[in-house]
Every structure is written in C-alpha cells, then in structure tokens.
Amino acid sequence: MTRFFYPSLAVVAVTVMSLLPLTLDPQGYEIRILCIAMLFAALGQAWNIVGGLANQISLGHAAYFGIGAYTSTILLRLFSLSPWLGGILGMVLAVLFALLLSVPTVRLKGHYFALATLGAGEAMRVIANSWASVTGGPVGISVPYSRESSLWMMQFPTVLPNYYLFLIALVIICLVFWKIQTGALGFRLRAIKENEQAAEVIGVDTYRAKLIASTVSAAITAFMGTLYAQFQFFFDPDTVFGVATISVKMALIAILGGVGTLLGPLLGAAFIIPMEEFANSYFGASVAGLSQFAYGVILVVIILINPRGLVALIGQIKNRIFSKGGSQ
Amino acid sequence: MQSITTFFQTLIDGVLIGGVYAVISIGLSLVFGVMHIVNFAHAEFLMLGMFIAWFAWAYAGIDPMLGAFIALIITFFIGMGMQRVLIKPIIGAPQVAQIFLTVGLLFAMENGALLLFGADFRSVSTSYQTQALTLFSGESGRILVPLDKLYAFLMALLSGASLWFFLNRTSWGRAMRATSQDPMAAKLMGINTDKMYMIAFGLGVGTTAFGGAVILPYITASPTVGSQFVVLMFTAVVLGGLGSVAGAVVGGIMVGLIQSFSALILPIQLQNLTLFVIFILVLALKPEGLTARRRS
Amino acid sequence: MTAPILQVQNLTRRFGGLVAVNDVSFELDPGEIVGLIGPNGAGKTTLFNVLTGIYPPSAGQILLRGAPSGGLKPHKIAARGMTKTFQNVALFMESSVLDNVVTGGLLKNTLPEARKKARAILERVGLASIADKKAGDLSFPERARVEVARALCTEPDILLLDEVMAALTPAEMEDVITLVRSLRDEGITFVVVEHHMKAVMKLCERLLVLNFGELIADGTPTDIAQNDRVIEAYLGSSFAKKRQHQAPEVLA
C-alpha cells in the first residue's frame, strides 16, 4: 500500500488543486489567497532544500526573491523583455549572488550562518532602497500593465492563468525537492546536517554539496520572485527584500509544517497564509502588526510544543489514536 | 577629511555613540556568553527600555537618565520570566529551534508594541537636549560635545563599569562566569545554574533596555526602533567576539566610529550598507574571534 | 619488495604551544595491520586526524601511494583511499544504519550501486538485521560497528580504526579480529588504535608507539614489549599519572 499511497495522494491533490479554481470567481478573493498560499509553499520548499536538508539556516532568502522580482520587472520596463526571459536572467543573477555569498558563508554554521545571511538580505534591501534610478527606490516599482492577454508577457485578464502558473511551479519545485531528498545529494546534505566532519572524512565534498543546494534554492526563489511580480504588478524593496515578509516567512512555513520534509512547507503554507488573510480581512488593515504578532506567537508556540513541526505533530496524534485504539 | 576639526568632531561623535552601542551590545554578548544562545529579539528590549523611559517621563516627569534605572529593573524581571518560560526549554535544543524561537519573539514583541502603543513616534524634551559644550572654537571651525550624547555616554560608562564589577568582584558574578565556562562543573560546585541563567538573561536584556532609555533624548521611540539597532548590535558583538563582554565594548565603539566616519563620505542609507559588509566579512574572516570564549 | 602505500615523513602538528604530533616518521606496506599504541593523550587520534585531513599538518609530509596528501581536504583523501572511524562515534544519528553506510558508498558509486554495496557490507559485518534502525537508537558497540561499515563502504585502501573494540565482549572482539584479517586478505591496510592490549597483540603484526606526540618505538609486538623506552613510557612516567592500567598487559 505504501508504495502507491503517496504517489496517488499526490495525483489526487494536484487534480483537486487543478479543478478547484473552476468553482471560484476568477477575479475573486479566494483564488488570490490560493495563489499566495502556493507561492509561499513553493518558497518554503525552496528554503527547505538548504534550511531543511542541510540545516544551513538562511535568514536572507529575500535577497534571491527580490533579485528575481526586480530583474524581470526592470527589464520589462526598459526593454519590454518577456518576464520568462527576465525571470531566467533573474535566476542567473540569484545564482551568482548565492555563489558570491558562499565565499564568506560556506564555512559558517548555525547562528553565524543565520546572522551572515540576515545581513546579506538586509544589504540588498538597503541597496534597492538607495539605488532609486534603477529600482524606483522606496516608493516601489510597478509592472507596466497591458490590456492584452499574453502568456509570453505573463499578463492575463483574470487571475486564473496566474493560479495555474503558481500550481505548475509548485509541482515542479516539489518534484525537485523530492528528487534531491531521495537522491545522492539528499544523502550528502543530511550527512552535513548530522555531522559535517564525519561527512567529509567518508568522502562527502561538503562545500560542493552546500553550493549545489544553495544555488538551486536561490534560482527557484528568484523565479518565484518573478511570478510574484507578474501577479502583484506592484512591489517595493521593503516587501520583496523584507526579513519578516519573505526571509522569515519562508523559513517559518517550512518549520511550522515540518523542516526537511516534502509535506512540511505545503502544510505550513496551507495553515499560515489563510490564517494571515483571515486575520487581515477580519481585523482590517487598521490593526497594524496583528498578523506579524500572530506569526511571532505561533513560531514561539510551535517550537515550544514540537520543534519538528506539524508533520511530527500529526504523526504524534496518529500514534496516540492508533495506540489507544489498539489497547482497548 | 575637510579639516582637523571635522576629524576630531567626527571622532568625538563616534566615541559618544559607540559607548552607547557598547552598552546595548554587552547585554547581547552576556546572554550568548552564558547560555550560548543568540537572542535575535534582543534589540526589542532596547525598544522596551525606550518606551518605559518615555512613559516615566510623560506621566511622572522623570528624566530618561533616571528612567533608565526603572527600565533596567522592569526589563530585568521581564527577562527573568521570559528566560524561565521561553528560553529555558530550548537550551541544548537544535539550533533551528533556538534561532526561530528568538526570531518569533522578535516579531511578537515588535508587533505587540505596535498593537499596544500604536505606530506613533514618541520623543522627550529635556533642558539639555539642545545644549553643547564647546571644546574648541577657532578659524577652522568648532568642536562641540552635545550634552544629551555626553550624558548618555556617561550613563553607558556607569552601567558598563557596574556590570564589570558585578561579574568580576561579586560572588554571583563569579558563579555566573563559572556557569558560562562549564555548566556541569558549576552545578557540581553547588551553583544553581538555572538561577544563573535567569539572572544572566535578566541582566542582559536589562542592560540593553538601560542603553535604550539613555538615548531617548536624541532618538525617538517607536515600536520598530529595535530594527535600526539589530545590525549595529550584532556587528559590535561579532567584531569583539561573540560572548565576550569586554569585546562588546571595543566592538561597540568601533561601530560608532565606523558609522560616524562613513557619514563623512557616504549618503545616509549606505552607512548601514558599510556595516552589513563589515559584519559579513568579520563573520567570515575572523571565525576564531567568534568562537573564542569570553575573556572578561 | 612492494612500494609503501603510505609514507609519513617528519610529521608535526601543533595546537598553539602544544605539540600534539612531533616529528613522526613511518611507512606502511600494503596489507599490513599495524597497531598504534601509547598512553592517553599521546597524540594517536590527532595523528589520525592529520592523516585524514581533518587538521592540516604543521610540518612534514604525507605521501599516499607516492603522492603528497598532507593538507588536502578530508573528502579528497577519502577519494584517494584513506579514511577513518571516529573514536567518539560520529554517525549520522538521525539516519538509519543503512543510510549511514550508503552515504559512504556514494564516494565511488551511484546511489543504486551504493545501496547494493551497503547491504552487502552490513551483511558481512553482521548488522543486516538492524539495517533499518536509527543510528541514534543503537548501543555503543553497535555504533562502533556501523562506523566500520560506513568507512568500508568508501572502498578504502587504508582504514584507520580508532578504538572500535572499546566496550566489546571478548567474543565480539574475536569477530572484529576475524573481520579485519579477512579484509586485509582482500588488500586493505589497517592502522588500529586500541586500548585493549591483548586484542592489539593478537591482531597486529607490527606496533607503533607514541608518547607525548613522539614515535618512540616501531617494531613487532615482542620487540615492543621488551623495549626500554616503551616500558618507561608506560610504567615510569605513567605511574605518577595513574595511567598504568594498560602496562601489565604490554608486558604480558
């Protein structure tokens, strides 16, 4: 049963997610929430490659996200370049940034890695805010809107096509994660996570494994930045390069769901994003800071209850139910 | 450098603000030194200290320099409670849990303050705010020492010296240092390490809150003020060696000097960029300084 | 005469003022089983760590099959055929026994090949029945054997074993000795650090003795047992430091 259980579950889930938007208003609020949830599930999964598998706890992934969003948008504004090409260029730039950042950070672990990546993400935010001639500065930048529908220019009259782009991206990213997790690289990354020195001694090129993981993660994050830009049509440095809005949120989603697991970021996003949207719509924007306050509290509570996240929590509950059922 | 007076003025500004950074960073370093936990939420206690001092000034007319002691006492007890409830369970837990617990605390505190106090900027007015000592006046310009910054610096010196005295000259301080070096051995010697952890965390956040209160005359309080200081604090601490209390003092003054001198040549936003770059480079190039045990 | 597989020339490793390995020179011939003994703190584990690249040498040379390997990163040295087990056991505790061993196999194999190889090795070292257990749940002797299996899966020419027999029963020790001998017959060269002197005497054809980082003797077990410097190292200086518990066995 187990051999076919998860693949069939995945097929069912993708089918449901494909049909679901057909029942919704294509310009409506619900479909937008689903888009954002899939965006953050994908981002959480990208973070999971380095943060989850290799335990390199990055607090600076917003750098890659922002690079993706700005690269495609600036090129679209200047040269009317297709966001697909701009997105690919953004991925290349993000990979270069990841390689550059790896020079000082590849040997760092734990707190030091977290601090250094936090600094790098913040540095990008400062640059985007001050380099106004290119980025538009703190007031933000908008994607030029054309009324025509065009897949090539990633512009659509309704949100429905965006929804399918997010869904396809999410499925691909989950497959990438699954391939890495179950492949040779996954073994190497877990070895690094659990004992880096022993991994080296038995032949794991730890630098190389970390570099591959972080560049793949950076490229994915950057492309999601492009998809986000083409979905929102407007953004500013503090949003796309933000610690709270992107870097920590990506990690939070992976950790909340279950760090290092395929299902983790999906569960995390399915929980966090609707909750955030609900809080925002219920209390309104007048209560500033409420959703982030809730984030903070949820993060603290989940770590105190079970640092392994929802996946482990569900496992615990399942065990408890089964063992009770068995004993009676 | 435009002239020799500009140089000295910049130097004095750097040292004055650096002294305050030092006190703010000492608390962070103390917490890491004793508990080996990087408290990402630490700057929020600076914010808390500023708000306590502001309320003391606004409702009881207490000068922030005195309000700082109230802030120290209140945050000391808040810190002890937080250590007991939140930090204690994660000592020895995986680093991912440690990091995100304090990151969660950061968001909860910053946005909790936003919910409680609103987004308004709050400032105090004191008699000495606009005054300055003139150290030198001549054709090449003047060298001024603003009184608010001087008082903050002196208060910072006072609290730094008191902390040094506590750690080195009292039996509790010695017990705390013993706990930081070898908790098992300390326990065997009859030291209540749980209590030491609570006091260390209380003192760490209290010192930082104290530093926040004394700068209230020249920096306005707001719920997000902590985020301005996060990188400053961490850079100071990392420059001096994470966990070293004496190092945090040196690091704090260096950050103050870097900031004031880079202001001469760079636009304001890029000053922080300089710090980020130095911060990452120091992390990368001086790892031995980072893992070095506290020396003070 | 075959060419030596490992040549260590005037190897020194300092930590600040402490000289942990001091001007050590020796050679290993292919297929030897060599014991490395000495009082606690003599520098045995440090020597292993320098040989496998965990620490770069402060001075001196290491030639692995004639090519210099001193200062290379551990994974490069592993790829050239030398690896070690960890004295304090450094398994991937959250992973299964099989996955631990598979990770070693990835050095020279694709994942499916590494899996096959790992299963064969687990069978051989008698761990097949616990292949799916989490490494962190094992007993200490089991962990030590997983260490050996993981190292073996890297297909080494030289394997440095750091106290893998600690806490084993005499019967289990006998198993390890048989295993090491049969692996040697397949061409692996061993250097063994072990505190249990009877086992060392039985397993090794040649002993290297370290004391305060210096190599004070190199010879057959019988020679070593009669060597004055060795006796002094164990009895003389160690008596004062109450570390003499191995000494009677050296003389036995």
From TrEMBL, chain A:
Keyword presence, NAD: no
- Gene Ontology cellular component? plasma membrane
Query: Source organism's superkingdom?
Result: Bacteria
Task: Specify the protein's topology with respect to the membrane.
Answer: Multi-pass membrane protein
- The scientific name of the source species is Sulfitobacter brevis
Instruction: List localization entries.
Output: Cell membrane
Location (main, coarse): membrane
What Pfam families does the entry give? BPD_transp_2
Q: Which UniProt keywords apply?
A: Cell membrane, Membrane, Transmembrane, Transmembrane helix
Key word ATP-binding present in the record? Answer: no
InterPro entries associated with the record: ABC_transp_permease, LivM-like
What is the protein name stated in its UniProt record? Branched-chain amino acid transport system permease protein
Q: Which GO terms describe its molecular function?
A: branched-chain amino acid transmembrane transporter activity
Residue ranges crossing the lipid bilayer per the database entry: 6-24, 31-50, 62-79, 84-103, 163-180, 251-273, 293-314
Q: Which PANTHER family match?
A: HIGH-AFFINITY BRANCHED-CHAIN AMINO ACID TRANSPORT PROTEIN BRAE, HIGH-AFFINITY BRANCHED-CHAIN AMINO ACID TRANSPORT SYSTEM PERMEASE
Automatic annotation (TrEMBL), chain B:
Look up the domain of life of the source: Bacteria
Give the UniProt keywords, A-Z.
Answer: Amino-acid transport, Cell membrane, Membrane, Transmembrane, Transmembrane helix, Transport
Q: What is its main location?
A: membrane
Question: Recorded GO terms, molecular function?
Answer: transmembrane transporter activity
Gene Ontology biological process: amino acid transport
Query: Mind naming one GO cellular-component term on file for this protein?
Result: plasma membrane
Family indicated by similarity = Belongs to the binding-protein-dependent transport system permease family. LivHM subfamily.
Name of the protein described by the UniProt record: Amino acid/amide ABC transporter membrane protein 1, HAAT family (TC 3.A.1.4.-)
Q: Which organism is it from?
A: Sulfitobacter brevis
From TrEMBL, chain C:
Q: Name one GO biological process term.
A: L-valine import across plasma membrane
Alphabetical keyword list: ATP-binding, Nucleotide-binding, Transport
Q: What's the protein here called?
A: Branched-chain amino acid transport system ATP-binding protein
Residue ranges that the Swiss-Prot or TrEMBL entry lists as coiled coil: none
Q: Which PANTHER family match?
A: AMINO ACID ABC TRANSPORTER ATP-BINDING PROTEIN, CONSERVED COMPONENT OF ABC TRANSPORTER FOR NATURAL AMINO ACIDS-RELATED
Q: Where is the ABC transporter domain?
A: 6-237
Give this protein's Gene Ontology molecular function annotations. Answer: ATP binding; ATP hydrolysis activity; L-isoleucine transmembrane transporter activity; L-phenylalanine transmembrane transporter activity; L-valine transmembrane transporter activity
CC per GO annotation: plasma membrane
Q: InterPro entries in the record, alphabetically?
A: AAA+_ATPase, ABC_AA/LPS_Transport, ABC_transporter-like_ATP-bd, BCA_ABC_TP_C, P-loop_NTPase
Which species does this protein come from?
Sulfitobacter brevis
Organism domain of life: Bacteria
Pfam families to which the protein is assigned, alphabetical? ABC_tran, BCA_ABC_TP_C
Alphabetical list of CDD domains matching this protein: ABC_Mj1267_LivG_branched
